[in-house]
């Protein structure tokens, strides 16, 4: 069944656009929508804000390794420099926070956010298709779903996400709903009606699509990742491209990207990992150590989760009302992002 899903998105899903035009759809909640599950997922996010934010960052990096997604992003010219990436991905953060933090109902900020995102996808898909770049397909949208939820579910232990089966199942329902609302048909949706059937889909997309793309290290992918990280530096000044890449490759189980000695029993692979780490400057090695230690060790304790979650709330407040790092990097005129 998992192989069938992969074949479905790679063949039929790759040819089918999410939407053809804005008049071809109406945003309505699906008949299977469960409000209690959706709200449970929102609370789950609040409890794991910091860990899930990092998972989302690595997820965004991972999906940049998919050529069809990357080519459209290059075409839009909205992500290729640190400034354009800053505006695009801060807007993405704002949209995602609306979905996670605001009640989902017609007329709400989250509902308006979904409508805006869906309209944007239609416009970009039509323009890119006219220029022979390709469409925003059901396949690409399903893979993009992985970017938002995949690592949270598959690598909760490495991220410090506190998991229960019920919370994870609610998170699957949340992203199944969001996927539906932004135009993903149920058969292409990477999130199914339950956790147990979603995990194999996530694993298949990671192993067969994302990991090979990450290993390929296409130049355009590395350039776009650098722009993304340098743009989001204004949100988190500890971000460094090389560190974010290593962290992402480790989450994606890319060979030779391990950290602790007990992660890899293959001596050759362990030595290769050590070689890559030692190629980083001392500052980057320290940041990587802190990043992995915070997520894999400290976030298992409520006090540290409280601290780091609130640190992100402060960052959110500053980037919204007083983005002083963006003032410094891009100037006041470009610093404020609104959606």
From TrEMBL:
UniProt KW Membrane keyword: yes
Annotated ER-bound oxygenase mpaB/mpaB'/Rubber oxygenase catalytic domain residues: 48-187
Pfam families: MPAB_Lcp_cat (PF09995)
Record field: transmembrane: 49-74, 286-308, 314-332
Highest taxon of the lineage: Eukaryota
Keywords from the UniProt entry: Membrane, Transmembrane, Transmembrane helix
Keyword RNA-binding attributed: no
Molecular function per GO: oxidoreductase activity
PANTHER family, per database record: GH11867P
Protein name as it appears in the record: Putative conserved plasma membrane protein
Source species: Corethrella appendiculata
Lineage: Eukaryota, Metazoa, Ecdysozoa, Arthropoda, Hexapoda
């Amino acid at each position: 069944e998992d192989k069938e899903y992969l074949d479905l998105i790679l063949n039929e899903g790759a040819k089918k656009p999410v939407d053809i035009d804005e008049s071809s759809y109406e945003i309505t909640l699906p008949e299977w929508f469960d409000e209690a599950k959706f709200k449970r997922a929102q609370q789950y996010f609040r409890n794991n804000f910091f860990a899930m934010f990092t998972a989302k960052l690595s997820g965004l990096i991972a999906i940049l390794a998919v050529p069809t997604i990357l080519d459209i992003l290059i075409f839009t010219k909205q992500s290729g420099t640190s400034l354009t990436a800053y505006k695009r991905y801060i807007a993405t953060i704002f949209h995602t926070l609306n979905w996670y933090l605001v009640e989902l109902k017609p007329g709400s900020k989250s509902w308006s956010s979904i409508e805006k995102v869906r309209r944007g996808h239609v416009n970009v898909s039509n323009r890119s298709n006219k220029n022979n770049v390709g469409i925003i397909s059901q396949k690409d949208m399903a893979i993009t779903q992985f970017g938002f939820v995949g690592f949270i579910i598959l690598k909760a232990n490495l991220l410090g996400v506190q998991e229960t089966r019920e919370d994870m199942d609610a998170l699957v329902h949340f992203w199944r709903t969001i996927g539906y609302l932004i135009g993903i048909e149920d058969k292409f949706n990477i999130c199914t009606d339950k956790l147990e059937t979603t995990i194999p889909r996530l694993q298949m997309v990671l192993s067969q699509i994302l990991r090979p793309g990450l290993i390929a290290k296409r130049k355009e992918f590395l350039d776009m990742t650098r722009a993304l990280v340098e743009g989001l530096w204004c949100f988190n000044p500890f971000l460094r491209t090389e560190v974010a890449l290593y962290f992402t490759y480790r989450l994606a189980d890319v060979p030779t990207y391990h950290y602790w000695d007990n992660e890899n029993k293959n001596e050759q692979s362990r030595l290769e990992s050590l070689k890559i780490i030692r190629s980083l400057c001392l500052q980057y090695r320290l940041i990587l150590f802190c990043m992995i230690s915070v997520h894999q060790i400290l976030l298992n304790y409520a006090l540290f989760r409280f601290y780091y979650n609130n640190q992100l709330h402060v960052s959110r407040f500053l980037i919204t009302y007083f983005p002083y790092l963006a003032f410094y990097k891009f100037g006041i005129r470009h610093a404020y992002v609104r959606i």
